[in-house]
Known about the structure:
The structure is a homodimer.
Chain A (H helix, E strand, L loop, with lengths): L2 H27 L4 H17 L1 H14 L7 H7 L3 H16 L7 E6 L5 E8 L2 E6 L4 H12 L3 E5 L5 H18 L6 E3 L6 H8 L6 E5 L2 H10 L12 E5 L5 H13 L8 E7 H17 L5 E4 L1 H6 L4 E2 L2 H5 L6 E7 L2 H11 L4 E5 L3 H10 L4 E6 L16 E3 L7 E3 L5 E12 L3
Parallel strand pairs in A: 3-4, 3-6, 4-5, 7-8, 7-12, 8-11, 9-10, 9-11, 12-13
Antiparallel strand pairs in A: 1-2, 2-16, 14-15
Helix pairs in contact in A: 1-8, 2-5, 2-7, 3-7, 5-6, 6-7, 10-11
Amino acid sequence: xxxxxxxERDLAAYCEEVARRAKRASAQxxxxxxxxxxxxxxxxxxxxxxxxxxxxxxxxxxxxxAPGFGLTDAxxxxxxxxxxxxxxxxxxxxxxxxxxxxVGEVIESAVRPNGLEVSRVRVPLGVVFFIYESRPNxxxxxxxxxxxxxxxxxxxxxxxAAHSSAAIVAILRETAAAAGVPTDAIQLxxxxxxxxxxxxxxxxxxxDVAIPRGGESLIRRVAAEATMPVIKHFDGNCHVxxxxxxxxxxxxxxxxxxxxxxxGVCNAAESLLVHQAIAAEFLPGVAAALAANQPPVxxxxxxxxxxxxxxxxxxxxxxxxxxxxxxxxxxxxVAGLDEAIDHINHYGSHHTDAIVTRCLLAARQFxxxxxxxxxxxxxxxxxxxxGELGLxxxxxxxxxxxxxxxxxxxxxxxxxxxxxIGDGHVRS
Amino acid sequence: xxxxxxxERDLAAYCEEVARRAKRASAQxxxxxxxxxxxxxxxxxxxxxxxxxxxxxxxxxxxxxAPGFGLTDAxxxxxxxxxxxxxxxxxxxxxxxxxxxxVGEVIESAVRPNGLEVSRVRVPLGVVFFIYESRPNxxxxxxxxxxxxxxxxxxxxxxxAAHSSAAIVAILRETAAAAGVPTDAIQLxxxxxxxxxxxxxxxxxxxDVAIPRGGESLIRRVAAEATMPVIKHFDGNCHVxxxxxxxxxxxxxxxxxxxxxxxGVCNAAESLLVHQAIAAEFLPGVAAALAANQPPVxxxxxxxxxxxxxxxxxxxxxxxxxxxxxxxxxxxxVAGLDEAIDHINHYGSHHTDAIVTRCLLAARQFxxxxxxxxxxxxxxxxxxxxGELGLxxxxxxxxxxxxxxxxxxxxxxxxxxxxxIGDGHVRS
Lengths: 428, 428
């Protein structure tokens, strides 16, 4: 037997063992008292603060290795931990401790005409396989959200953050043991071998859901290989549509916020649609504000836009499909609401789209007909976020329609069971 | 180019055209008024009644062809339509018309501290690809449930029922046109080519969910090939556990109902677990009732059971994993509640399991720790059914934990969107 064959078998056995342990832990987690989980979260917050020096040492090793992985400056910055960032991680855990426990929630309950009491009660999904890239803060966040919702988690972080993540997980497992949470509820995959992901994706017997968080190619790979459900988290091609009746000052503020507040996020606007009746009045101000932004944002427009802004570069059809995740915006002048809605449903990615309007009819049409996870009226697309929408914490923003859509918080990591209580009922 | 290659391309093009039409129809369906959908359902019920003679003629052609397909008598009987069965199909549609419309339901709504109004509103999934076997009544039922929940449906019925299903779908499309429902909301795949299913399962761009309903091999094939989410509907290895404190009369009634009321259904009991303290008192009555049933039910037991019922055949480990779907039951005497729960979670299929008990603690432990879609207390497993649990109608019983678990009614065929209303809100 070749060494590679033996290694491959070892890796498969390792992955299966991790998954089995996770499943065993999840059976205990499902009925763990909420106060035990919260105690673990609070102990973990304290232990992360106390462990700052250790975590920073581990992080220094990752930072030293970063050039070897070819990380850009921005990527290296995302990898970097500081006392303030560790404090933020700890605070996030305390906040999750304060959120309501989703497990055991009675979603609905009724007494049937024959006296049977039927309840639909929230239960954990089971085991989450979470695959993410190099930001070490995500390690603690994901573990906290999974365990609070009663799920065991298998964490597969980026190799660039391996030491930082290992230091954080060591602390989380130590506090788990102290608090009475099964330590195997939080496991970090400790091999950099890329083949491990493929092995885990076959283990639907023990893993209930896979959540990839990262670039499009990672998500496509996981979706293609997974034998269990996947919560997908693609980027967003988000739109702002400024209606004829919009308050133009508000429309400008929302457009600039949606495009410029952060470029590299999935809920940033990539396209601006403007009603023809107000385009000539509205667009020059937009162009000026985009040009004045730091960094300046390039505006690409259709012919009608260039009639108003002659120096704008032409927007190709490709531009309307594009998620720039950077300082560019595509602009189109539309005949009205119908064209705006059709454009968004055709070119958009069904993520987050906003209308600015004072017209109730337009707002109702837009929210009913735009087929997106979040539809905003007179608000920036940037609000599509678990914290902003009131979910408390999120493990990602789903671009699926199945199971969970939009921000995935604690509830979105649960299933339910029917509990049916009778007095000797039989079916006739 | 070989003829086969050309046929294959034609088939692929046909499937894509069907899927595109369905997607177009679904965009209209999503905002169709509830009264239009209900009007379609009522017109359809009337038209099916009026069309009885036509449907029976089509059904006669299927029945004549049945021996050629090698159908058993039971299968032929399921295929057979009668005026009474057509009346039952029509009544089911009228009942679905009377159910609340799930689309537009506000699942939750809150005002955030910054004044943003955030609502989670129910929307259709989009396009359902429904693959089922030979019962023609399922054709009308599935179409009704899908359209009422705002989804377009692509129906792929068994070839054995092709004429019956075509006659029913022709009526449903005619009434759709009359009622203002897009006719492409209801499409029947009109080729018997098995390869069509494979083509549809690749079309995740237009199809949002695949629902196979039939034997295990069909479901496994669909789950393996599908590029879109699948609601799986495996059989159930369901248990009745009779606790030490059970009312034994009630326990006997529930056991016999769960096992004998219908053998071939997923919520029939396949195993009986009996607390050792009451086994000697309880089991002889069970054996007698099973023997007296028409047809008699064979009892297979472990050594402890055979100590009480010496003529019982031994139950192997395999028996405890088995879904007989027939007149056999596996019996095991257990030391207590913990062993019962562990047995069910290990050998069962997480479908439906019941406890008979008078002890509140036992009931609470059982419902919390048994990891099944439906957990019954003092009620027959046969109640795990959309109608019985109050969902009104069902397209199947999901054995998944993701998205929908247990009976899938109208709501289970929906997703949601976030609707967020502000007054010029931007994120800081």
